Structure to design on (398 residues):
């Protein structure tokens, strides 16, 4: 084999949402994009903030103008509970919904996925947790994100909080909607701190997907991750500080979706695993939890040269930060990239230390033990993470 021959590509599979519509103002013309008729009985799943703002009103008016019957479930909370999901399913059955439309952030989209699934199939929820345990059929499903971060409109996972703080997920290709509608005008009113945290979350999805040790890491995901980071890195500051800039908002929404497609097929790793206890124990929003540990996990991974992640991070650096100095070899470029990511979070106004979100040093050992339960994510990390490692990472982030 000579040097110009490529390495063999390991086998992989790739799933994504079959139809994606990107259009400024798409929500206000929703009936057109969905082909809505007077026979349709459509249930919209959203949250109380969106109801109060009236953000979904133009979409609802469009559906009603087409003759559809519309019912709104507007009760989705952050980290949605099983009780919320059960109420949504009951409404869908009572309404005899012919389709479900998720409209909102990741929580609303997750509840919409599972409402369409369980109202369509009648399967008992308890038999569907985990990977590929869901049976169809589900109701027709459209997802309309109003934040640029989770990428939930193109991921097969939906997460529900069971009991106090146990997170359970249903992962199934059935959770990919029939159509994702991306309308950047829905995101122009997002406040800066939400734009910043959700935007960093999307960047973490791309970085972790690109460097994932998962056997299904694949060239499609890596290309999507690079393009996602190019869009997110060059537009996040403008989107945060000049939220009305539609070009920046469009780039963030597309970047978030591309990152979602990447990690849906090349899953995330230790940043998300270590963010998990911060969210569940201290109710810190998902994006901020990730931002708090991001530079420290990447430094931990890069410090062990044998796993090669430093070279992958160095390759990503110039896509995120076009001016990143390229001299000094991959280790030096990687170190500058990680420093720049930490600076970026601070410049965006995000809290940068665990102590800033009410975590004490005495909390760290239990968090490290908790993080070890995220084996589903940790196995994808470029470097093995033990409990002592997790503690050291938290200590550095504290
Ligand atoms: Zn995330």
């Amino acid at each position: 084999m000579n040097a110009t021959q490529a390495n063999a590509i390991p086998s992989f599979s790739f799933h994504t949402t079959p139809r994606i519509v990107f259009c400024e103002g798409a929500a206000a013309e929703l009936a057109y994009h969905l082909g809505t008729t007077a026979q349709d009985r459509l249930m919209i799943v959203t949250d109380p903030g969106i109801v109060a703002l009236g953000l979904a009103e133009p979409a609802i008016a469009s559906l009603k103008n087409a003759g559809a019957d519309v019912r709104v479930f507007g009760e989705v909370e952050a980290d949605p509970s099983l009780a919320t999901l059960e109420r949504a399913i009951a409404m869908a059955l009572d309404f005899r919904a012919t389709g479900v439309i998720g409209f909102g952030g990741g929580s609303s989209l997750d509840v919409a996925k599972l409402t369409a699934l369980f109202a369509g199939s009648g399967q008992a929820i308890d038999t569907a947790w985990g990977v590929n345990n869901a049976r169809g059929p589900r109701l027709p499903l459209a997802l309309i994100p109003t934040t640029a971060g989770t990428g939930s409109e193109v991921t097969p996972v939906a997460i529900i909080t069971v009991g106090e703080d146990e997170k359970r997920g249903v992962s199934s290709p059935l959770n990919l909607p029939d159509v994702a509608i991306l309308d950047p005008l829905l995101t122009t009113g997002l406040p800066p701190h939400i734009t910043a945290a959700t935007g960093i979350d999307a960047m973490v999805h791309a970085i972790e997907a690109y460097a994932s040790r998962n056997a299904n890491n694949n060239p499609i995901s890596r290309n999507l991750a690079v393009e996602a980071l190019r869009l997110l890195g060059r537009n996040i500051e403008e989107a945060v500080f000049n939220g009305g800039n539609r070009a920046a908002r469009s780039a963030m929404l597309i970047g978030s979706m591309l990152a979602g497609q990447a990690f849906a097929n090349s899953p995330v790793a230790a940043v998300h695993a270590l963010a998990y206890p911060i969210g569940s124990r201290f109710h810190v929003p998902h994006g901020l939890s990730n931002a708090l540990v991001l530079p420290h996990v990447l430094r931990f991974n890069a410090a062990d040269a044998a796993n090669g992640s430093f070279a992958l991070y160095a390759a990503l650096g110039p896509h995120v930060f076009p001016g990143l100095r390229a001299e000094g070899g991959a280790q030096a470029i990687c170190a500058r990239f990680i420093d720049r990511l930490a600076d970026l979070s601070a410049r965006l106004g995000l809290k940068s230390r665990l102590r800033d979100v009410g975590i004490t040093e005495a909390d760290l050992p239990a968090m490290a033990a908790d993080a070890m339960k995220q084996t589903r994510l940790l196995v994808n990390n470029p470097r093995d993470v033990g409990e002592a490692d997790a503690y050291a990472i938290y200590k550095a982030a504290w």
User: Anything to note?
Assistant: The first strand starts at residue 20 and ends at 22. The beta strands are 20-22, 41-45, 69-73, 99-104, 130-131, 141-145, 157-162, 166-171, 179-182. The pocket of zinc ion is lined by residues 201, 205, 272, 286, 290 (CB under 6 Å).
